[in-house]
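Suppose a colleague, Dr. K., hands you the sequence of a protein chain of 454 amino acids and asks what its three-dimensional shape might be. Before reaching for any lab equipment, you can write down a predicted structure in token form. Begin with the sequence itself:
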Amino acid sequence: MNFMRTKIFSISGKFALVASAALMATTPSTSQTVSDNSVPQAGLDIPEQLTIFGENDPNVRRATALVNGDIITGTDVDHRLALIVAANGGRVSDEERERLRLQVLRNLIDETLQIQEAEANEITISNGEIEQTFNQVAQQNFKQDINAFDAFLRTKGSSADTLKRQIKGELAWSRLLRRNIQPFINVGDEEVNSIIERLNASKGSTEYRIGEIYMSAAPEAAEQVAVNMRKILDQIRQGGSFVAYARQFSEASTAATGGDLGWVRPAQLPQSLADAAVQMQVGQVVGPIEVPGGFSILYLIDQRQILTADPRNAVLSLKQLSISFPPGTTEAQATSRAAQFATATQNIKGCGAANEVATSIGAQIVDNDQVRLRDLPGPLQSTIAQLQIGQASQPFGSVADGVRVLILCGRDDPQSAAAPSFDQIMSQLENERVNKRAQIYLRDLRRDAIIEYN
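The predicted structure, expressed as tokens, is then:
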């Protein structure tokens, strides 16, 4: 239910409008006359015939800014951009890199405003808090050992400091909202009870765990925003990290969690997103989808039935038997060895005999207890789900990684799923209302800011 948006980048609309005016000029000069009856006035009383004095093309500016006296340097932008490139394995084109650079600068401006406002309210974030989150990002988003993470970032053209600054901004803004907004949010017991009743009435229907990248779009900038989002979608489909793009560019409150909306039902989503979600397959990414105020890219992380036990939550006890191939093994030799391995393991009669079989064929054996079925790779889930106690899976693997089988030694099936608690639903409703207020808060900070570009 926490899908409200909190970061609306009005700056992007201004850049797009100036760029459009520059492109429509017929000759390069310091005085350009533009006529376009199709541009929405948005209540600003802009004349149809206008003259733009001087050249004001953001594409020729260096990516630096002074925000209420705080400097954002070109190095800051380069290091933040390198984080995105690193999270996508370096698979970012030169054209995409330049487009991302402008978006990074907008993000850094917002981040600076948030940190400044937190400091003005005497909110401090300790180094220990930053380090804890830094370690989590290293392990979860970059799959790096924390001891080598600093060196890894330097090899990618970034630094630990730039990531820690982003973390500081997220923590400071969150704490500011909890202190200045959350205490004034009220949710009634009757609202919570009404949701619980609807959940019980919806038992057995499908809900979805969705990731979202949301970007706002004023009418005059909608086409350009849609183009930018299609480029992001292409990068993700080519192997880019959805989580990394969401953290850096999503304007929703869920950006800090990699765009994860949590478990939602179609009725909780804007209609266009609901229509897309019910047609998606787990693991699929689609977009851009037009929603009120902008566009979204959706990623279907998982789906389940409401208040119904999910078989994939079964807890398994497994034994793994594996063999490896020495360097230089040919495909034919590996196939022959794997066939012998398959014959031996399929004749195993229960986990009690697994150790003896492993010794006879020179296989390594590992016990794996407390493994959730849903945590196994997708192709293995359906295979293991159909095994009876004591049966072995078909062999799987490769010449490089070796071949292995899994033997099912035990299974604890899940009980019926419980509804969210009263307190959990209360917290979700409060978060939604905090996010709405946060959107207004950040908008006002932008309006009052003094921003100079170099």
